Every structure is written in C-alpha cells, then in structure tokens.
Amino acid sequence: MNNKIPKRTFVQKYHLIGWGWTILFVILLGLSSAMTGVDWGTFFTNLNQFFVLVEQMASPAWDYIDIIWQPLLETIQMALIGTTIGTVLAVPFAIIAARNIVKNKVVRSVIRLILNLVRTLPDLLLAALFVAIVGIGPTAGVWTLAVFSFGMVSKLFYEAIETIDEGPLEALRAAGANKMQIIIFAVLPQILNNFVSYFLYTFEINVRASTILGYLGAGGIGVYLQRSLSSFQYAQTGVIVIVIFAVVIIIDGFSNWLREKLV
Fold it and tell me: Into which family does the record put it (predicted)?
C-alpha cells in the first residue's frame, strides 16, 4: 500500500502562488493607506458626486465647439512643434548615449546623466519655469513640451539603437567607413520605423499634456478647460473632453496606419 502524499500539481502550485501574492498586495495596500492617511470611507461616501459630474458632462454644450475650435488647433500646433523640436534634439544625444556607437563609458555616462536629469523634471514644473521666462502663452507650452519630448524620446531612441543588428556596423567598419557614415548608412535605416513610432507616440502624449499645461497659462485648450471647471460649467467640460478624445483617437489611427506602411 502506497502511503506517500501525492505531489501538488502545477495548477495547485500556481493557485497557491497567486493567493500568496494577492494576500501580500492587500497587506501592502492596507499599510500604505494607513501610513498616508487615506480615508477610504470618505471616498466611497462621496463617490456619488463623481456620477453627478459625469451626468452633467453627459449633456455636452455642443455650441461651445465654435469657441474652443481655435484653442484646439493651437493645442495641436503646440504639441506638434514641441514634439518636433524635442525629437530633433534627442537624436544626437541618443546616438552618443548608445553603448554600441560610443565606446567611451565616461562620455556615455555624462550624457545619460543629463538625460536622466531632464526626465526628472515634471512637465508642470517646466511649464511654470517657461511661463516665468517667456510669459503666459503658447510659447511657454511649446518649450515645455520640447524639453519633455527630448527627455522621453532620447531614452527610447538610444535603447532602440542598442538593439539593432551589429552586422552592418561591422561591415562598414571593416570597409573603412567613419563614424558618421556608419550612423547614416547602418544605424538610422534600422531604426527609422522606431523613430516614427516614438515621434507619433510622444505627439499623442503631448496633445493630452498640453491641456493640463493650460492651467499654468501655457496656452491651448487647457485654459478653457480650467475656466469651465472653475465656473462649474460641466456641459462645456464635456465638450472639451470629447474633442480631445477624438483628436487622440485620430492621431492613434494615423500612427497605426503609418507604421503599417513603413513595415
């Protein structure tokens, strides 16, 4: 007679691990809530106010589109110019930061430190700084988005460069090509699709971010969003949210279409 206890199956082990992580997550959530003073009771008690606001925004004031049309175009222009400036500036920094292009570790470390510092700055802080420098208006928004785009695209770009096929690089080095020729003929053709994808992705993010920058006077449709919320005109807020959502959907669709054409 076999009295051995049967070993747990893979499914049983998977369930035990899953329950263990769930319990750990609940404990950490409880401790974090206690340490930060989160009042869950107040949140659930006033949750009905969220649905009240949603109900008011569910009846958009469509005539408000005539007023926000020009600020919306300004927002898109801000995002496009800022993304373009930041992306163009990010290309040389990303190339220098890539370990398969620049072998000098000190140079790479300095460049990556600069990029890390740029990404550390919140976009709202950047907006406040540029508003103080150039004044209230879209110019502050453009430079804020340019710095933000520079920090994000540079990291994505040098990581993409480090994953390219080394074969063409070695072939050009063996043929006596200089560093610039290697970058132009072996590096850039391999990352062109990634370059376009990162540009459009950053542009999409900047369209949404520019609406928040308007709260600090950085121009665009965000100014009107702040006005509608401050005056409790939630029907106007609903129109602004719908319009921004439509723009983001269009940009995402265009991005997908363009990537398919480039592949």
Answer: Belongs to the binding-protein-dependent transport system permease family.
